[in-house]
Amino acid sequence: MPTISFPVLSVALLLAVGTASHAQTTAATWNNKQCAVVLTYDDAIDADLDQAIPALDSVKLRGTFYLIGSSAVVAKRLPEWRRAAQRGHELGNHALMHPCDGSLPGRGFVTPDNDLSKYTVSRAVSEVRANNVLLNAIDGKTARTFAYPCGDLTIGGVKFYDQLRPDFVAARGVTSGLQTATQVDLTNINSYMINGQSGDYLINLVKQAQESHTLLVFLFHGVGGGHSLNVDLKAHRQLLRYLKAHEKEIWVAPMVEVAEKIRSSPPAAAPRK
Prior knowledge:
By secondary structure, this protein is an alpha/beta fold.
C-alpha cells in the first residue's frame, strides 16, 4: 500500500480547507444558495407594466426596472410604477434622457439632443441625479442602482459614473459574463442582453450559474413586444417557472439587494497553495 508523506497530506488538507472556505463564502454572498439571478428590464415601456411585472408577480419573483425619467410611460402610469415598487420591484435609474454616444458605429438612432458625446460630464451627472429625485418621489427609496444607457461609460474618455458612486449602490453594464462575487465590478456589472433567444437558452444560462456559483444578470427590453429588442412571452414564462421551481437553490432578487450583499460580504479567502 503506498504511503503518503506528512507534507503532501498537509498540503492536500490545506487546499481542501481553503476550497471549502471559498465555497462557503460564495454561498453566503448568494444568500446561502447556489447562485444569484437578477432580472432587469430597461427603458420604462408599457410592456413592463402590461407583461413583465404581472408575470413576475404571478410567481412571486421580483425584478429591477430601469426607468428613463423622460419616458411618457413613467408620466402616464406613475401610480402603477409606485405599486410595483411597493410589491418589492426595484425602480432603477436609466438616466433622465437616456443619452447614448452618437459618434459610435450603428448609432443612427441617437438624436443631437441626446448625444452623450456632446454632453459635458457635469450635465450627465446632473441629469442622472435629477432622475434619482423623480424616482424617490415615486417609491420613497434612496438606495438604488444605475444602468448605463446603451452601455456607454465615458464622455471624452472620462468615466462619468465616477462622480455618481456616492449616489448608487452599483451600476449595471452590458458586457455578458458570469462572475463570482469577488469578480463583480460594482461600477459595471455584467449582464446578458436578451433578444429573441429561446426559453431553453435562458434556462441553460441559469444552470451554468448554478454550476459555477456565480451571478447571472438578465437584460430584457420588450417582453412579448413593445421594443425592437424582445423576448417571447413563452420564453420569458419558461425562465420564470424554472427559477420558481428551483428557488431553494437560486437567489432571485432585485439588483440593489444583490449588490448590497456583495458590498457587505467579506472577500473570499483564496485557496492556499
